[in-house]
Amino acid sequence: MIGAPGVVQATSRVGRGRYRAHVPQDGAAAREGRSAQAAARSGAAEDREGPQSPERQDEAPGPSPGSEEARADTLTQALEAVEVRRSRRRVRTVTAFREGGRLVVAIPARFTRTQEREWVRRMVTKLVSQEQRRRPSDEQLLARATELSTRYLQGRARPTSVAWVTNQGRRWGSCTPGEGTIRISSRVRGMPRWVLDYVLLHELAHLLHAGHGPEFWALVERYPRTERARGFLEGVAYATDAPADEDEDDGEEQVAEP
After folding, report:
1. 73-82 residue pLDDT tens
2. 8 A C-beta contact, residue 91 and residue 70
3. Which CATH number is associated with domain 138-254?
């Protein structure tokens, strides 16, 4: 995409949870950059006041997880806590990433305060959106599971609840067919969307078939990325020294780990 000077021409993800944008530098921007650097070297004071955060009513009920209001609130909090790093070595790129729990945006030293605010908001929005897609709420998990059931199982699997759990050290997911409940290991949180979809569909298939027989796998393999997702999970299990036996059944809970 070709844009005007000062507008993103190309944005790409660099590594896990990291975004980098390439910024064209025209003559005016270069001159402005040199002036900004000269001012910085001369010790000119810089206004470091950021955008004012909106006032909040503590007594008001909070937004529901996954709602537009909740996403906007998350973005606002991220913008308030972001750390901006200026670098004279950085000329044509802007990068947003997490470091030790902090959200960092690295920008060229030549940026004006207006450019800083514009680019920080742009990059933080991209990073937060990506994180939210990889870490859906329980309500969003249920909605996604229902969508997958409709797409691949003709809607026959009808989960009553889908929730993240932290007590599954050797399982990617489990379910109780008699109750229609599905539990997804928190270890899956942050994995690619297509891997989470596979784990969800695996458990949805168990609502229809308790074991791992031919009928079960015939349903699971309707998902086009089944083999790729199984390979991904096998690699994670191997790397963490937690191999799984997918044919191991424990009462009503079914193993989703390949």
Report:
1. 666 776 777 8
2. no
3. 3.30.2010.10
